Amino acid sequence: MKCQxxxxxxxxxxxxxxDETVTFRIMRHLEECPSCSSRFSVEQRxxxxxxxxxxxxxxxxxxxxxxxxxxxxxxxxLSSRRSWAAALIVVLLATAVFGVDxxxxxxxxxxxxxxxxxxQDHRKFVSGDVGPDLPSENPDEVNAFLARELSTAMPQxxxxxxxxxxxxRKCHLKEAWVGFIMLRFNSTPVSLFxxxxxxxxxxxxxxxxxxxxxxxxxxxxxAVLSTFGDHLLCAVGNVPVPTLEELTRRP
Amino acid sequence: MQCQIRVPTYKSxxxxxxxxxxxxxxxxxxxxxxxxxxxxxxxxxxxxxxxxAEDVLQAVLLSAFAARxxxxxxxxxRAWIYQFLVHEVANANRRLRKARVRLNxxxxxxxxxxxxxxxxxxxxxxxxxxxxQALLDRLDERLAAALQSLGEDERGALLLRxxxxxxxxxxxxxxSVPQGTIMARLFRARLKxxxxxxxxxxxxxxxxx
Lengths: 251, 209
Hints:
heterodimer, A: 251 residues, alpha+beta, Phosphorylase Kinase, domain 1, 2 domains, seven-stranded antiparallel β-sheet, 20% strand, B: 209 residues, mainly alpha
């Protein structure tokens, strides 16, 4: 191979897009020709420096992705067709389980959207479908994650051996980004969702009543709403309501 | 004569409301978030005006989400979403170019490298080879302008290779062109880029002998 031919193939050689025969011929030429060898090594260095420069982030890229998702309304809701299907299933199940009379006699307040969405994610945690982004038993590490990812914090985990912190996850509940803190009470999974004041605007019905610490039966689980400073809390678990309140009502 | 009109049956008009999405809204958002900073870095470099990157990204997400039924579970989400990125970038740059021409009718497309340009690049290259560090130290200053001197197809191919690390075959698939076309675009892009950078290096040496 001559130098001119080797240099014409330099670009394709850098992309590893040549077939084995041509690549082998170039490699042999580089072993024999110090001038081309030097040129190829400078080219590789330059190419690497260009790549590093081009890939250098400004620091706000992930925030732009998050904003674009929110503006596009993705990650907030199910598609309308699936929403109708989900609503139909809920109505049929409710009718079958409780009976029409019982539904008509129910006097408890409607379950807020936040509680319904939190209970769905809690069940994914229970079934092992989701786990923490940051597995940690250390509340300081969990708080650092919440501060970094969501500008929020978690309440103190109750003292004693019964409670065990498992970790934290950043996820969507309907329209909002929330901190999903995973714990165990003895061996029972308990979920605690922390929602910043900004994101809590997505749940006006829950935010309006959270300060009264209402509780709701959600299937076999209980859910408790509360506040933590300006933040909204929602605890879900198959444990007694006072146990959930122990988690949400601590200073 | 026998009637050829096919009467649709009730079954054929039924909408399967329980047909599962290959990727639902939350998973879609998670997959997009998992791509990290890369799509925005790519958009900012490849668009003629980086300030529209967020709008273009939003358009990409809306198009891809609307077409999510075509996504096959278990395949590469990143490669799939880049199909929409490449398409929206072409649309956005077309609009931006029209707007530029309206404002300044003398704006020309970058020219393909001639043999004279190749010779010029060869001469300029020897300057780079003599002192590559001088160029590398100040690469940032000139790279953005040098990229804008490339044709759009060349810039797109180069950035898909350099930022997104797609292979030549993958880039060819994204643009629906033969691999040889992408290899030629990458060759021309590198040639132009090095000419511009070498000119800059020469300018620096004149300023800082």
